[in-house]
Write a structure and sequence with these properties.
By secondary structure, the chain is mostly helical. The chain has a domain at 21-103: Winged helix-like DNA-binding domain superfamily/Winged helix DNA-binding domain (Arc Repressor Mutant, subunit A), CATH 1.10.10.10. The protein contains seven helices and three strands. A hairpin with a 2-residue loop joins strand 2 and strand 3 (97-102). The longest helix has 20 residues, at 20-39. It is elongated and about 50 Å long.
Length: 135
Amino acid sequence: MKRNPLDIYPYFCNYRTMKASQSKKSAEQVAKYADMFSAMGTEPRLRIMRLLLSAHPEGLVAGEIQEELDIPNSTLSHHLDKLKVEELVEVQRESTFLRYTANTNALQELLQFLYAECCTRNKAVKPEEIVQFCK
């Protein structure tokens, strides 16, 4: 009986281009960034992030955010907590107030992840266009 070479040697034994540890790290990063995008994926949270960025680096206390965006206190608390859990905002207690600031390091990391491939591998977007867009 003649054996098929595929029965002897695993056909797809080297089909991956990344090592397992790199692949796992990459998958974890994608999950992390997906959660961050999801946290900003509602209209009120995106408005909160824009407001906090406009008040950077001092930030705003919760009452100022509520006043500016006209969001009920309990709803605002929920939105801010979601943004905090995903490390998009930082919170500092000041006496009886909570001051919220945008975590610009996390946002920068998120944008670097998003634009890494399009600006390096295939040049779909020129880095100069992104910088000009942000000005």
